[in-house]
Amino acid sequence: MYESELPIRPEINETHLAAAKHWASAGTWWSAAERIAIVEEARKAWDAQPLAPWQQPSSIPGLISDDHILPVAAIDVIWRLTNHVSTLTKTWYESFVPDKLSAQQYVEIVGIVAQSTLTDRFADALDLPRVSLAAPGQGQASQQQPDDAAVSSHWVPTAPIVDGSWNPATPTDVPNVRKALSLVAAERIMQWVLIDAHYVQGGALADDFGAKHWSLERAQIELLGTRTSKVNECFY
Amino acid sequence: MGVVKELGNNDGGVKHGALLARLCDAVAAKDRTVMAGVRADMLADMSAEQLVDAVGVSAMFHMMNRVANATGTPLDPIMSQAGPAISEAIGASGFHSRADTPEAKP
């Protein structure tokens, strides 16, 4: 995948390639072509001259082509997620959902943008070419969703998750950020795969503060996570 | 926590902490020259493996921060007691996302 003299671990190569294949496949609420367009739009947003948070790309004449495959609301969401992650509010969310996008469509966009942000920031930081985007696959969006999804804790509807690796005694007690995309299971699963390849595998999170992971000490990993979250102003 | 709150020369008790904090800021920014400088410093002071893994962790948090901030992810119960002190220590009390991050449910 990545061709570099740097010692890129197989887990990173394999999961970035898996993510690229995932984006190019028919999704749950968006087609494969639309999903590829979501990644392309996130890249366009990152590489563009910066807009103020309140400036939607759809308000800039000529910035979005008239025949764009994605609805304007999706493009506005993608740009804000990509470039102004510190400014997202419930009011902003409700300005799109449910009138302009369904919660399901929104959650799938969040998943794809978040995943491609991971792979692209990785590549950019190491001066590597970004993951190539495959031609979109065939098939229709599956429109599968969990029967028991509801707005219960997050802004978006979520579904209960059962994962005994965290605590076998309370297998439904997983961190809330791991439940956040559960309305669209395929995006939640891709998120978890990427977490495990780059951070600390789920079940080990709370009990190994003296351990090393890959080449880093756990304290170094937590510093990297906390400082990045500080830069992005993520209170969670 | 000072190394998280602001950049400087203090490692905060973490090996190469100040350099790792600089790396996070460079990954989040769009300045290729600054990023190249941090890469060179990491290769000189740490190792190529640590550079790759550190960039991977920071990039992973870019994913998680977007998921959390875009979905109104509430604090986990484990943070209900420690959260305020940590928030104050790293300067998170003024984040926009604080107002829209629901409180932890025990």
What descriptors fit this protein?
heterodimer; A: 236 residues; mainly alpha; two-stranded antiparallel sheet; 8 helices; 2 strands; 43% helix; globular; B: 106 residues; 2 domains
Reading the helices and strands of chain A in chain order gives HHHHHHHEEH
SSE order of chain B: HHHHHH
**Broad shape of chain A:** globular
Task: Give the tally of structural domains of chain B.
Answer: 2
Question: Count the helices of chain A. How many?
Answer: 8
**Strand-residue proportion of chain A:** under 5%
- Category from helices, strands and their pairing of chain B: mainly alpha
Strand order of the largest sheet of chain A: 1-2
Can you give the mean pLDDT of chain A? Answer: 92
**How many DSSP-defined strands of chain B?**
0
How helix-rich are the residues of chain A, as a percent range?
40-55%
Mean pLDDT of chain B: 86
- Global geometry of chain B: globular
* Main sheet properties of chain B: none
Class inferred from helices and paired strands of chain A: mainly alpha
Describe this structure in words.
The complex is a heterodimer of chains A (236) and B (106). Chain A has a domain of 156 residues. In chain A, 43% of the residues lie in helices and 2% in strands. Chain A has 8 helices and 2 strands; from the N terminus they run αααααααββα. Chain A has a two-stranded antiparallel sheet with strand order 1-2. In chain A, helix 2 crosses helix 3, helix 2 crosses helix 5 and helix 3 crosses helix 5. Chain A is globular. The model of chain A has no long low-confidence stretch (mean pLDDT 92). Chain B has 2 domains: 70 residues, no CATH class; 33 residues, no CATH class. Chain B is built from 6 helices and no strands.
